[in-house]
Amino acid sequence: MDLRPHIGSFAKRLAEVETALSDPKVFANNLRFQELSKEYARLKELVERGTAYLKTRAELAENRALLDSEPSDSEIAQMAREELARLEAEEQRLALELQHGLLPPNSADSRNTIVEIRAGAGGSESALFAADLYRMYSRYAESRGWKLEALDSSPSDLGGFKEVVFSVSGSDVFKRLKYESGVHRVQRVPATEAQGRIHTSTATVAVLPEAEEVDVHLKPEELEVTVCRASGPGGQGVNTTDSAVQILHKPSGLIVRCADGRSQQKNKQQAFTVLRSRLLEQRIAQENAKYAAQRKAQVGTGERNERIRTYNFPQNRVTDHRIERTLYNLSAILEGDLDCLIDPLMAHDLEERLSAVKL
């Protein structure tokens, strides 16, 4: 497709937004200012990519002309062919990113995120795997400069987690982490296995965009809030005070518990945030049948045959079944090197969305 008209449209809209942001009236409306600021940042990035795209196309034309004018076995021709391969890959990457800019932005992509990891099939081994996933996401958040904060956890006897809930805040958190929702399967020899047999276990990951008060209104009469003493690590300040908070949302039956903080007030605030996020997800699922079907396929029930990704320790292999991508760098991925999986998933999602609309 010819992207030049769209690049021009991006530049025109960027100038309009820049003019709007210089209007003192905009500063008086904080919500409007934030919306325009986000649009400005998005458009500026698209215009920069558009400029790079046009430059790459011009360099491609020059190298093709050079290749046509030189003997095929000459050194210059060989250099031109190598440069063409690089430029063609760059053109394809930039074109895909510009096409992404033609799609309506997802407002949830820029939100902070609630991540819930639960042990699935496999007993104590699945709880240990849940701890591995928590560590993986912690390292990934650290590598991207995101802030991760534990909200609640239920440790297992051998050092794993039956359940762990945490929040991640930063730039484009949900945009990248949303592809982690689903059942993760691990194949390895457990430390407790005397005969060296490979076991298969699972853990489920749910990724929720953080909801705000304007998204979900909670009525006091529909809530039952209780406090109790937290258990587990954290020292005397956590274990001897009534800092843990549990909220029951009576209409939906949802129960949220936050206990990892020392402050009862902070735990209460975090519990409300998680509850709003879960209720927002429920509402979206009810309003959008397609989304509901997709989430059911992703998260499932935690059984071994329902998975989005397999981590095979004996072969040092990770396979993402949605895009049929297999990598042999399991140790690096568990250390938080997730971009090698998330980037192709984002590209695949973009292609699927582009094929569903007429541009």
Describe the protein's architecture and organization.
Helix content is 49%, strand content 20%. The chain is built from 11 helices and 11 strands. With 359 residues, the protein is α+β, with helices and mostly antiparallel strands. An 8-stranded mixed β-sheet has the order 2-3-1-5-4-9-10-11, sandwiched between helices.
Topology of helices and strands:
Elements: H1 4-21, H2 24-28, H3 30-69, H4 75-102, E1 113-119, H5 124-143, E2 147-155, E3 161-169, H6 173-177, E4 182-188, E5 199-209, E6 223-228, H7 236-239, E7 244-249, E8 254-258, H8 264-287, H9 289-299, E9 309-312, E10 317-320, E11 325-327, H10 330-334, H11 339-355
Helix pairs in contact: 1-3, 3-4, 8-9
Short description:
This protein has helices spanning 4-21, 24-28, 30-69, 75-102, 124-143, 173-177, 236-239, 264-287, 289-299, 330-334, 339-355, and strands at residues 113-119, 147-155, 161-169, 182-188, 199-209, 223-228, 244-249, 254-258, 309-312, 317-320, 325-327. By secondary structure, the protein is of the alpha+beta class.
